[in-house]
Structure formats: C-alpha cells, structure tokens
# Entry
Amino acid sequence: MRLLNASGCLDALTAPEVANELDAFVTKTITPLPREGNAPVRIAETEVGMLNSIGLANPGRERFLTETLPRLRALLDVPIWVSVGGFCAADYAETCAALDGVEAIELNLSCPNVDEAPESAAEIVAACRRVTDVPLYAKLSAASPDVGAVAAAVQAVGADGLSLINTLRGMKLDADTLRPTLGRAVGGLSGPALKPIALAAVHTCRRATDLAIVGMGGVSTGRDIVELVAAGARDVALGTILFADPDAPRRVREEVVRECSRVSVASVDDVFARAHKTAEVPA
# Structure
C-alpha cells in the first residue's frame, strides 16, 4: 500500500517536508490555460467536513511545465503524479502528451466546481491513451448513477487505475442571511462524511474491474486506510486531514501498524479486498 495526497490538499512547494513523507505526491489539477478560480468565498467548514469551491485555480500548462514541475523535481524525493483537467477531451490529451518523466497522470474527470467536459469519461481516457504511455488513473465521482459501469468503461479504453472518490457537491447557508456561504453557492464536500461513500465506491469498482484503485475520501486514521484496502484499494490518499494535521502521513502509518496487529495480520496488504470474501457460516 502506497500513501499519497489527494490532489489540491497539499502544496509541496511550501511544505516539501510533508510531501516527502508520502510515497508519491499528486499535484494540483493543471488545465491548458491559467485559471484564477471561482469568486470568493471559496472555503467553508461544515459539521461533517469542508466545502471548497476553488475552481481549479492553477498557473496553466505552460508555466507548470517550465516552472512548477522543475521546482517540484528539485524539492521532492518521491515520485510525482500530475493531476490533469480540461473542458474537452482534446484539453486532457494535449496536456498528457506534454508530460514526460512523471510516475502517473490522474485525470480529474469529476470536479464539482467547474463545468464538465461534454465527452464521457471513457472518451477522455481513450483520447489520452492514444498520446501517452504514462499510467493513467481516472478520478471518478460517486455521484455517478453507476460508478462501476464507468470504471469498466475506462478500463476498456486503457485506464491503468482509478482514484475514488472525488468530492461531492454540497452547500452551506449562512446562519443569519440564509444565503449560500460560498461565492459559487455550491462546492465540493470533503472530510469524514465521505468515508462510507468512498468505501462503497471502491468496493463497487473492485467488483467491476481489476484496475488498481487509490482510495480517498474522509481518510484521517490508520483504521480508515485499512478499511479502504479491505474494500479493494491498492493505495490510499490523504485529503482534508492534511490541512489540519501536516503530521498525518507519519501518524497514520504508525496507526496502520497497530491496526494490523489488532486484526492479526502482518501487513495492511494482507487485508486487500477482504470485504469481498464470503464470510464463513458456522456449522
């Protein structure tokens, strides 16, 4: 099991020491042109997690390739995954074609804070597969009516893995005005509320495909990691917890060891897909 960060939840340029505690670092989502992001307010805390409406703010593909990526390579001792976004299949493919020497590409196919590309997830993955041999991970949303079918479709056109799950669309109202707190009204919900949904999505997609899965959503403890691996995730990403606890990578690794001891296994990999095994019925 490798430990990663969820895209957008860690700035390795300002906190390289945290990124180097991971097994791979995932960049913020990169789009062809620079984006300032959505109008403020862009972040709001809720009782069950955090809402964000950042809107894929990023320097754009050209500056990322010429400035950001070289700086990351100089600072980090771990492999780099690049998160790629766009507004049509050609956007994704053009960025993938320009990426070289990275560990993997995560295709952000389900951001709730921007308009979605008109093509299906499978069409976007197919367009990217034609232009790159770098491993492709499709980041999907549990909001899909049948996430298992989407997972099977992207596998059929060349995806190497899945990232599950992206944030889910949510809203918070101001207590006094009863108007939306976020400038865009809605944003992506992350944090503890996502864990049961992430477990279900990982379990469903493991049944539908044999793709490698990075599980994410509400991960804050070693127990959360063990459960996602048991549901079918090969790797796990930390997200919202990194904002509050930069020491989370070290802490959760220690907790995983203790949790494995508690369930009597030598390694977290020993519980992989255990949730899919039929329980033995006592005689």
